[in-house]
Design brief:
mainly alpha, two-stranded antiparallel ribbon
């Protein structure tokens, strides 16, 4: 499994590479974490619910790259509140970064997040990353159906967030994998127009 994961990263930078790199992923401030869980410090005397507390604990583990603990805490949050789309999404992100990475479980988590929140662009993006991973096989062959699913998810993510350079860049990556260099260049050019500081799909510090 590990060798296959590495071979699938031949087209770099890839969405999976981003997801497995803590510095490149969408890090959250403490306020962002609290808002994601529905808690605002100083604005309410109401304590967090059990599911919110589990989610916040999961985010702390995730931020520390303690992925097994994060996955367990996200699962706890989901068990306490099966409607918490953010917990499914973030568990999928943690699973993508883990040593026991499995595309199918990431897709399952992101699909559940999308079912709960159809307007969730990051869930579409992460599901596209897993589909792209499945599309590129160890022998270099490309599975057309998985690649098409990745393109579909990234297209939907861009519909929801048209000025996100990351989504645009990785649409280019998908077309590059498909062998359509001209379309890939157009998406990469558009991504750079959206964010001139973009490199490899991510802002350069």
């Amino acid at each position: 499994m590990k060798d296959e994961r590495q071979s699938r990263q031949r087209v770099e930078p890839s969405a999976k590479t981003a997801a497995r790199c803590p510095a490149a992923s969408n890090s959250r401030s403490l306020i962002g974490l609290l808002l994601a869980a529905g808690v605002v410090l100083g604005c309410s005397d109401k304590p967090p619910t059990a599911s919110q507390a589990a989610f916040l604990r999961a985010e702390e583990h995730h931020d520390a790259y303690e992925l097994e603990e994060a996955i367990a805490a996200y699962t706890e949050a989901i068990e306490l509140d099966p409607t918490l789309a953010e917990a499914y999404h973030r568990r999928g992100v943690a699973r993508m970064s883990s040593a026991v990475y499995d595309d199918a479980t990431v897709i399952e988590d992101q699909t559940k997040a999308i079912a709960l929140r159809p307007d969730y662009p990051e869930a579409y993006y992460e599901r596209a990353a897993a589909h792209l991973s499945m599309a590129v096989k160890q022998d270099g062959q490309v599975v057309k159906e998985d690649l098409e699913r990745a393109v579909g998810d990234l297209t939907r993510a861009m519909e929801l967030e048209p000025t996100n350079a990351k989504y645009c860049w990785f649409l280019g990556i998908c077309h590059q994998v498909a062998g359509d260099a001209e379309t890939a260049k157009r998406y990469h050019k558009k991504a750079m127009e959206i964010d001139p500081n973009l490199w490899g799909g991510f802002p350069v510090p």
